[in-house]
Design goal:
about 375 residues, alpha/beta, six-stranded parallel β-sheet, three-stranded antiparallel β-sheet, 11 helices, 14 strands
């Protein structure tokens, strides 16, 4: 109780009062857990009520969350010049109902990206979306921007990117949205983008790796790598590495990698089970566009999983998502055969307007119980 009194939270509920030897703590992303100092164990459920809880709302004015040398979160009250390991928002926790409807039940094929974020306030959050001038990327960027986030459209074609910015501003003139040049087929461009972003001295709370190439004829980038592999995977891999320090300093932060169900229909190992590097960036004689795309999407998922393993202890989570089977977009534009197939399938697919991120949630390399777009 002394700790509660110190943080100004001594007005507690008797039902939620902890038994002796128990302590209430929070994770970096706002989930409450309980530590038993006698038995030296932790658990998510309240020891008396059995409920799970999470923090609601932002830190009070003047408070800041930091991490000590042991990786434990503590809180600084700059106004009263004091520190505490007790989250000042613990007085405003909300119950997590274990019997609540699943994401699949809450959203359906007619749910829009705007509806997914309904009621969320992303004011103060900074979001980067690659390939955001059209399709999934544009709908994602627009939804974030119209919910208060500062959104950066990272695109190769700046003419189309600026048009996308104008479309978003046309819906809400106060939206904080801008375009920056990013060509994933050129590693120097990726490096320049990272340098330009860091020069802004802003945080990075969400990085959506969305840009992709599909059904390209075989070609090599200026970096000497097969184009599909570099655009879909290696460019994003390099981008995340360059922005990793910003993400960690902005924690809680999140990386969302748009992959595909087609990752299941390929392999990148040789007959002995070892990674075959020649399959990642194949020669012209060994190239098949669909297979190259599938392999790049498998790389996306492996990368996302490993990224989460390495950075989640530092408050950065990573999720790989499948955006939906045969969802009509412009990704097929590079070959007339795929354009014909997508056109024939169009009456049976979702448009960009009805794009449902929860299709991705079903496939996500999930960490926690929240939507990939939630904090």
């Amino acid at each position: 109780m002394a700790a509660l009194r110190y943080s100004g939270l001594d007005d507690t509920d008797s039902e939620d009062e902890l038994p002796p030897c128990w302590e209430q703590r929070t994770t970096k992303d706002g989930w409450v857990y309980y530590a038993n100092h006698t038995e030296e164990k932790t658990q998510w459920e309240h020891p008396k009520t059995g409920k799970r809880k999470r923090i609601a709302g932002d830190l009070p004015y003047g408070w800041e969350q930091e991490t000590d040398e042991n990786g434990q979160v503590f809180f600084v009250d700059h106004i009263n010049k004091r520190t505490t390991y007790l989250d000042p928002r613990l007085a405003f926790t909300v119950d997590e109902n274990p019997t609540r409807p699943t994401t699949r039940q809450r959203y359906d094929a007619s749910t829009t990206a705007m509806e997914i974020l309904q009621g969320r306030d992303f004011t103060g959050k900074v979001v980067v979306v690659t390939g955001a001038n059209s399709g999934i990327g544009f709908e994602t960027a627009k939804s974030f921007a119209l919910h208060g986030a500062h959104v950066i459209l990272a695109c190769r074609n700046m003419t189309r990117a600026n048009e996308a910015v104008s479309r978003i501003l046309g819906e809400w003139r106060k939206a904080k949205v801008e375009a920056m040049t990013l060509d994933l087929a050129l590693l120097r461009s990726v490096q320049h983008f990272a340098q330009a972003f860091k020069a802004k001295n802003v945080s990075l709370h969400v990085l959506v790796c969305n840009a992709a190439a599909f059904a390209l004829p075989w070609s090599l980038t200026k970096d000497g790598l097969e184009t599909t592999f570099q655009v879909n995977h290696l460019g994003h891999f390099f981008l995340v590495q360059l922005l990793q320090d910003v993400l960690c300093c902005s924690a809680p932060a999140r990386v969302v990698v748009v992959s595909s169900e087609s990752h299941r229909f390929t392999d990148i190992n040789d007959s002995s089970g070892k990674l075959d590097f020649s399959r990642l960036s194949p020669s012209k004689s060994d190239y098949w566009a669909m297979l190259a795309y599938n392999r790049s999407k498998l790389c996306n998922i492996l990368f996302s999983n490993e990224l989460h393993r390495r950075l989640s202890p530092r408050g950065v989570t990573s999720n790989a998502v499948h955006p939906g089977n045969m969802m009509y977009s412009s990704i097929h534009r590079n070959w007339w055969v795929y354009t014909l197939l997508f056109t024939l399938a169009r009456p049976f697919t979702k448009s960009m307007f009805w794009h449902d991120w929860t299709q991705g949630w079903k496939r996500t390399q999930a960490h926690g119980k929240k939507s990939i777009l939630e904090f």
